[in-house]
Specification:
The structure is a homodimer of 327-residue chains. By secondary structure, chain A is of the alpha+beta class. Helix content of chain A is 26%, strand content 23%. In chain A, the strands form 2 sheets. Chain A has a 10-stranded antiparallel sheet, sandwiched between helices. In chain A, a hairpin with a 5-residue loop joins strand 3 and strand 4.
Chain lengths: 327, 327
C-alpha cells in the first residue's frame, strides 16, 4: 500500500509508492516510441484494467475511453488511517489513478483531433469527476496530461490522467488562499481581474472565443506557458455544461496546435485546477487550465532551493509568436 | 536587463532572463564532457570574469576560487525600480550570480576531495555572504550546487553557485513561516525537534558527528534526499566559525560519497537554506543543507499541478542503504 506523508515544516505531501520501482535509476534519454501492442489501441482493450467510462462514435467503436492506471500511484481500496509518528503525519495512499485515452488513433496528438473530439475528452473528465466525488474519502481530483517523454509520458498513445486525492494539494490551496486574500480586499475574483487586464492589454493574449481566454501569464515558470481561463466565473470544472466545454476544447486545441507549430512539437504538461470537491462553490477562485511546454531544464538547484524559476522567453514575445501561427 | 516578476496569485517570483537564450529548444540528452579549455582549470583564469575570492594552498596556487558567472541570471549593476503594471508587480533583475570553483583539479568531484578541501569550499561560501550582505539591495543569498548534466550543470569541473536576490524566495519564507508556527505553539524549533526524533528513532539516520546530523527526511521529494542540520541551533550560515564548518564539511562529504557509491554517482543538487540577510537571528529557524539526487524524472504534470511528489524509495530504505556504504 502506498503511503502519504506530510512534511512537518511546509506541509508538502509526498506519495511513497514502493510498488512503482524499487531501485533508483539515472534518468534516461527519451525511450523508443512503443511499437507493436499498444494497450490503448482498439483491439487491445483486454490489456488494460476494466474500463470505467467510454464514449462511442457515430460509426461504432469508442472515441474516448477511461481505465484505471495499471501502475497506480495510489490504491482505490482501503481506509485512510490517518496517524501520527512522533511529530510526523501519515495516511494510507488511498486514491484513484485513471488514464483517459483521448483517441483510438495511435500517433494522433490531442492538437490533431477535431474540436468535437477534444470536447468528448473534456466531457469525459467531467463525467469521471461526477462519479468519483461520490466517494467520500476524496477531497480533490487533479486532471493532467504528460505529453512526450521529456514531460514524463511513458506511453505514446495520446492520453491524459486523473488522480483523486484524500487531501487538497498545496499548489491548489495556495492559489485558493491567494485568490481569497484578493477577494477580501477588493471583492473581486483575481482571475477575472487578470482576464480583464489581459483582454485590455492584449500583449500576452494567445486566443479568445466568446467563453474562454488563452494567454501567457505575467510570470510564467517556463517559456510558452499558457493559461486558459473561463470568461464567465465558475469555480467547479464539473459544473460546466457540455456547450461551454466545447468552447474550452476549441481554446485548448488551438493553444496546443499553436505551441506545437511555434516550438516544433515540444513535450508538454497541462493541469486542470478546480475548486476542491467538498468546498462550497467559490466566488473568488475559478477553475482553469495551465499548459506548460517542457522546453528547458526546468528544475535544478536554484529552482529547488528558492521556488524561483528562470525563464529565457518573456511572455509578451511568446504570445506574439503564438498569435502569428496561422490556424 | 533581466526582470523579476511576481505571480499575483501565489506570490511566486520568476526571473525573465532574455540574455540567457532567445529561442526555445527541446531538452537535450547530457552533453559531452567539456574537453580542452575548461575555464575553471588553473592556467585559464583569464577565461572567467575577474575573481572575487580565492583561497591559496600551502604549496602555492589556488584551492578554491570564486568568480562572477559569465552568463548571470541577474545583473549586479542597477537600481531595483520596483513598479506596478496594472495588478502586476515587477522589478529590475538586480542581483549577484557567482560560481565557486571547488578545486583546481578537473574531473575530481566534491565527494572525492578531502574534508579540509571541502571545509575551504564551505568557508568560501561564508566569506562571500559576509561580503555581499554589505550590499543593501540584497535580501537573500542562495548557495546551491548542480552536479551532472541531469541536475542542470553545464560545466563538468566541480563547482557550486551563489545567487544574491533582492527578495526572500518563497521556498525559504514558507519554511520560516512553518517553523515560526511550530515555535509559537511549542516554544521549540521544529528542526531541533526533528533532529531529536531522528537521533532517537535512527531509521532515517545517515551520518552524525558531534556537530551535525545527516538524515533522510520523513517526506522526501526524491529518492535518497538527505538533509544536513546542525545539532546546535544557529539561524545564520555566515555566523558559523570555521571549526563548525569543518564538521559540516565532514557530514556533507560523507553524505555525497555514500550517495555516489549507493546510487552509482548520480547527478545531484544541493541547496543551503539560511535565515534572510536583513532578519534578526532566529530561534525558530536554523540554516541547513538539502541534498537531492536526480534519480527520477522529478517534475511532470502531477507534480506541477499539485506540488505533490511521488517517491518510489521510502526514506528508511534509502538511509539504511546509505548507512551500509563503507567509508
Amino acid at each position: 500500500m502506498p503511503e502519504l506523508r506530510r512534511d512537518p515544516i511546509v506541509g508538502r505531501w509526498v506519495i511513497i509508492a514502493t510498488e512503482r520501482a524499487h531501485r533508483p535509476q539515472q534518468p534516461k534519454c527519451p525511450p523508443e516510441p512503443s511499437k507493436g501492442l499498444c494497450p490503448f489501441c482498439p483491439g487491445n482493450e483486454d490489456k488494460t484494467p476494466r474500463e470505467v467510462y467510454s464514449a462511442g462514435r457515430p460509426g461504432g467503436g469508442w472515441r474516448v475511453r477511461v481505465v484505471p492506471n495499471r501502475y497506480p500511484a495510489l490504491m482505490i481500496e482501503g481506509e485512510l488511517q490517518r496517524e501520527a509518528e512522533g511529530i510526523y503525519d501519515r495516511m494510507n495512499g488511498v486514491g484513484a489513478h485513471e488514464v483517459i485515452v483521448e483517441t483510438p488513433e495511435h500517433g494522433r496528438s490531442l492538437a490533431e483531433l477535431t474540436d468535437e473530439d477534444v470536447t468528448e475528452v473534456l466531457f469525459a473528465y467531467k463525467a469521471r469527476i461526477l462519479d468519483l466525488r461520490n466517494d467520500q474519502r476524496f477531497r480533490y481530483i487533479l486532471l493532467f496530461k504528460n505529453s512526450g517523454a521529456a514531460a514524463g509520458a511513458s506511453l505514446d498513445h495520446s492520453h491524459s490522467q486523473l488522480i483523486a486525492l484524500p487531501v487538497t494539494p498545496r499548489q491548489v490551496s495556495e492559489e485558493i488562499e491567494g485568490a481569497r486574500r484578493h477577494f477580501e480586499h477588493r471583492e473581486r475574483c483575481i482571475f477575472c481581474d487578470i482576464v480583464g487586464q489581459e483582454r485590455k492589454d492584449r500583449s500576452r493574449l494567445v486566443y479568445e472565443n466568446d467563453e474562454f481566454v488563452a494567454f501567457a501569464p505575467w510570470a510564467p515558470r517556463s517559456p510558452f506557458e499558457t493559461w486558459i481561463v473561463p470568461k464567465r466565473h465558475e469555480s467547479n470544472y464539473e459544473a460546466e455544461p457540455k456547450e461551454r466545454l466545447a468552447r474550452c476544447a476549441q481554446a485548448l486545441r488551438t493553444t496546443l496546435h499553436r505551441i506545437g507549430v511555434a516550438c516544433g512539437n515540444p513535450a508538454y504538461n497541462f493541469m486542470v485546477h478546480s475548486n476542491p470537491l467538498r468546498d462550497p462553490s467559490s466566488t473568488s477562485y475559478p477553475w482553469h487550465i495551465e499548459v506548460m511546454p517542457a522546453l528547458v531544464q526546468s528544475v535544478a538547484g536554484f529552482e529547488w532551493g528558492s521556488g524561483f524559476h528562470i525563464n529565457p522567453v518573456p511572455p509578451e514575445e511568446a504570445a506574439e509568436f503564438l498569435r502569428r501561427v496561422s490556424p
